[in-house]
Structure formats: C-alpha cells, structure tokens
From TrEMBL, chain B:
GO biological process: cell division
NCBIfam families: FtsE (TIGR02673)
Family per similarity comment: Belongs to the ABC transporter superfamily.
Origin: domain of life: Bacteria
Function: Part of the ABC transporter FtsEX involved in cellular division. Important for assembly or stability of the septal ring.
SMART domains per record: AAA (SM00382)
GO CC, alphabetical: plasma membrane
Residue ranges crossing the lipid bilayer per the database entry: none
GO molecular function: ATP binding; ATP hydrolysis activity; transmembrane transporter activity
A Pfam family reported for this protein in Swiss-Prot or TrEMBL: ABC_tran
Protein name per the record: Cell division ATP-binding protein FtsE
C-alpha cells in the first residue's frame, strides 16, 4: 500500500487549542444513564406502580387491622367462661346458681364468679325481645360469668363434670366455638389480603414487562450501538434495571406513603367520631384504627418488594429480549 | 483474521443478496470495499460485525467459527473490532466525550483510567473544544470524527468503516484517511466501505468490489 498524495504521508498531529487547558483530573463524565430517562414512559409507570402499591398496602393494612382486632376479641372472649343454669320446676334455681358459683370459685384457675341476677338476665334479652314483655313469667336461664385467673391452667372438663354432678341442667360454655370462628374469620381475611397483595405484585410485574418491552423497542438503536461497542447483555440489562429500580422505588414509596397517610387519617377521624355511637361501634370492630409496627412493616415490605419486582422483571425481560435478538 | 468461504445471504424467501463470497482480511492489512449503492456493502459489514447470520457458507472471525457464537464469545469478538457507521450512531443524550468513551465505559473501566486518553484522541480528531457538546449540535463532519474516535478508542485489531468520509469536505476526508492509514501502520486491519473513487485513488490498496451480489477482488 502506498500513498499517492505526499501530503497524506504526514502523521496527523494532536490539535492544540483551548482544550489543552481542560483539567484532565476532574471527571468529564456526567452521571448520565445510557438509557435516556425520557425514553421510558416513566411517569405513567410510576403512577401505575404507586396505585398498585397503594392498593396492596391498603389491603395489607386492612388485614393487619382485622387480625389485631380479632386477636383482641379472642383474648377478651378467652378470658371469660359462662355457666348457664336452666330453671326447672323441681329445683330451686337460686340455690343451683349459688352452688354453681361456689363450685366455680373453688376451682383452680378461676379468678371470680359473678352471678347475673334475674333482672340482669332479663336486661340481656331486652335488645332482642324488647322491654315491657313480662319476662318474669318465662323460664329464663340464669348466668354465672367466670373470669379466668392469669397464668393458671384451668381444667374445663373437670369443672364441667363437677357442675353436672352438683347442678343438673347446668352447662359450661368456654366460648371455644366463638374463638374458633373468630380465628377462622381472621385467618381468612389475612389469606385474602395476602392473595390480593400477590395479585397486585403479579400485575406490577406484567406492567413492568410491558413497559420494559416498550422501552426496549424505543431504544432499539441504543441497544444495537451498545452491542457493537462491546457491551454484553448483562451490562445492558443492568442499565435498564437501574432505571426501572428507580421508577419502582419511587412508585412504591408514593403508594406506600399514600396508604399510611390514609390509615393515619382514618385513625384521626375515628378518634374524632369516638364520642358518637357509630364511632364506638367502629372502635369495637377495628380497635383504635392503629396498624401498629406490623402494619408499617407490611407497608414497607410491600414497597420494597414492588421495587425489587420492578427491577428483576425489567432485567428478565431485557435479557429475554436480547436473547431473542441474538 | 476474517475469513469468508462461499457465504450467501438472503432475506426470508427472497433472492440471495450476497452470493458465494470468499475472501480473507489479513492482519495489518488495508482494503477498500466498494461497489454501487445498494450493492450490499453495509450488509457485508454487518455480517463481519456478526449483526447478521449468513444463510449459507462459513465465516470465521479472529480464527473463531462464528456459526454458533453467542454470549461472552460474541462480546469478546466485538470488543476486538471498531466500527464507524454511515449514520454515525452517536447517542444523542451523551456528550461527545461520553460517546467516545462509551466502548471503555461498557467494559466497566473506571473513568479516571481513560479520561486523558479520550481527551487526547478528541483533540487529535479536532474535537477538543467540542467534547462537552451533545451530538445534535455537532456538524456532519464533527459527528463523523466523533464516530471515528469512538471506533478507535479501544485500539481495535480490525476497523470497519462505512462511508467514513461521506459527510466531510475533501480536505477533511484526506485527513481522516491519514488517520486510518496511521492506525493501520500501528497494526490495525482496516476495511473502509466507500464509493468515493477520489478517496480510493489516494491510496494504493486492495479493493473488494461488490456487484450484483458477488465479490471481485483487485489486489
């Protein structure tokens, strides 16, 4: 090979100019991502992720609220037992009730036994039967409410046998059925909550997959250039993953904070309404609308998992897309 | 370095656009790839770049059979090549400096390790004062030089340039040609795809001429 133009034999020399004064020690590279921020429909994706996180966090908070309330109810119910004495014509019901209370008091694990008088028993029925019905003539069962002592084991079967022997027609209700039903209800709510959170995570993953595919299609030329200048698939996937992790964190944070703010607002409103009859019922159902540390931990975990799902899903989608290109 | 044996390429069920290509690019060699527009110059470059797979024949790059190449081996082969695209393919959101440094950045190198090298190369191609400018404000010639600098920064063993002087005046074209010749003297094999006869007349180099899908070689 020979040059036909003698001017061309000269070796090109580095140019001199103002650029010589450029400081070579300072970084000349901005922290500019290789996938342009504007090329991903970021705002729309952040909004979708925020809404999904908000719904998932709200569901989780609701489940936590219900689980906590149910746990309180169960604890209250489990601390009490009831002896019911049915009046019969052959026996003195007052003597039977007193005897049942004495047997209960003598049983280890029972802290107190409170006899509900006939008037109190009638008052308990008033919400269902109304007042002024002349309940005095009806054979209304009498009730002895037992409070259990803390930390001491009670033998309910032994008490049941002792009562059956001494007071025929009496029954001991340890509220086991109610506790079982409450536990089943609370567990069902928690499982449904977990399923909804799972569905939301799947929906997030699919939304991210679509957004990533869109971003890949929009940045096809950039991906091609990156390949030609020697970027491997891992590097390209990392670039997309970094962008999507950022979007996922933003969406998760906004959605999680939104849910926590709503729960706190509802808690404040519940406190304001507490004086009214409706407020008392709401408080009886859900407690003081406090989700506790479990609730906040659930919201934080959901926000983090949503961000991670976003990052991992984008990485998987990019790797699969690059594999298809190859 | 690059070896093609009876390579053919067709798109889908269409006719073969490249037929029976048999040639080699030797280490430290300099050659032009020429032919009329639409003859398949860019397609042939894309075959060498492993952006396309031939429908028949055998290709080896750097003594590696590329018929089933993928993953790390593919990346490794591409890192030994530099490419100048006809349409530059600069990333518009990165500065000239960042574009030229891109091949080093994707290799995971620290910026401090290549900063002075990139600045020096930018000054060499006359872009010392334009290193912080985004490509959309560069002229065609400046974009061309930035694209060439990006291809040279990794000191490739093989340089592929697609119409590298297509957007510059004759003076700058000669200067860029000198750049390629100097690079070749330093050990890089160079393949320049062009239909600029004036450019080819300046150098007595091997010519690969594509016409009607076939390749004719003039040593």
């Amino acid at each position: 090979m020979t040059m036909t133009d003698d001017r061309a034999t000269a070796v090109p020399q580095p140019e001199t100019g103002t650029a010589d004064s450029e400081p070579a020690t300072a970084s000349l590279r901005r922290d500019q991502p290789l996938v342009p921020a504007g090329s991903i429909s970021g705002r729309a994706l952040v909004t979708v992720i925020a809404i999904l996180t908000f719904l998932a966090a709200l569901t989780a908070c609701g489940a936590v609220l219900m689980a906590r309330a149910s746990s309180d109810w169960r604890a209250d119910v489990a601390r009490e037992m009831t002896i019911q004495v049915r009046p019969t014509s052959q026996r003195d019901v007052e003597a039977d009730v007193a005897k049942a209370a004495d047997i209960a008091k003598a049983t280890p694990g029972i802290a107190s036994a409170e006899i509900y008088s006939k008037a109190e028993a009638e008052r308990l029925l008033e919400p269902w039967l109304g007042s002024n019905l002349g309940l005095a003539e009806l054979p209304i069962p009498r009730i002895v409410v037992l409070k259990l002592a803390n930390g001491r084991q009670l033998d309910p079967d032994g008490l049941r046998k002792a009562l059956a022997a001494a007071v025929p027609g009496s029954t001991l209700d340890d509220h086991h059925m109610w506790i079982t039903r409450l536990a089943a209800m609370a567990n069902t709510v928690v499982v449904i909550g977990a399923l909804i959170v799972g569905l939301v995570l799947v929906a997030t993953a699919l939304a991210v997959a679509f957004a990533t595919r869109g971003a890949m299609a929009g940045n096809k030329e950039i991906v091609e250039v990156l390949h030609f200048v020697g970027a491997d698939d891992r590097f390209i996937a990392r670039e997309f993953q970094a962008r999507f992790l950022n979007l996922g964190l933003r969406g998760g944070l906004i959605g999680g904070l939104g849910a926590v703010a709503l729960i706190m607002l509802l808690g404040m409103l519940a406190a304001v309404w507490r004086s009214s009859a409706g407020g008392e019922q709401i408080e009886a159902l859900f407690g003081a609308f406090s989700i506790g540390w479990e609730g906040y931990a659930a919201v934080l975990a959901i926000a983090i998992v949503v961000a991670l799902v976003t990052a991992v899903m984008s990485r998987v989608t990019v790797r699969r897309h690059l594999h298809d290109i190859e | 370095m690059v070896r093609f044996e009876s390579v053919g390429l067709r798109y889908g069920m269409g006719p073969e656009v490249l037929r029976d290509l048999t040639f080699a690019i030797e280490p430290r060699s300099f050659q032009f790839l020429t032919g009329p527009s639409g003859a398949g110059k860019t397609t042939l470059l894309r075959l060498i770049l492993l952006a396309l797979k031939p429908t028949r024949g055998f290709i080896s790059i750097f003594d590696e059979d590329v018929s089933h190449i993928g993953g790390e081996a593919l990346t490794s082969v591409r890192r030994r090549m530099g490419v100048v695209f006809q349409d530059f393919r600069l990333l518009d959101h990165l500065t000239t400096y960042e574009n030229v440094a891109l091949p080093l950045r994707v290799q995971g190198k620290e910026e401090a390790s290549y900063r002075s090298e990139v600045v020096e190369l930018l000054r060499w191609v006359g872009l010392g004062e334009r290193m912080h400018v985004l490509p959309p404000v560069l002229s065609g010639g400046e974009k061309q030089r930035a694209a060439i600098a990006r291809a040279l920064i990794v000191r490739p063993e093989l340089l592929l340039a697609d119409e590298p002087t297509g957007n510059v005046d004759p003076n700058l074209a000669r200067r860029l040609l000198r750049l390629f010749i100097e690079l070749n003297r330093l050990g890089t094999s160079v393949l320049i795809a062009t239909h600029d006869l004036n450019l080819m007349d300046q150098v007595d180099a091997r010519r690969l001429v594509l016409g009607e899908g076939r390749l004719h070689i003039y040593d």
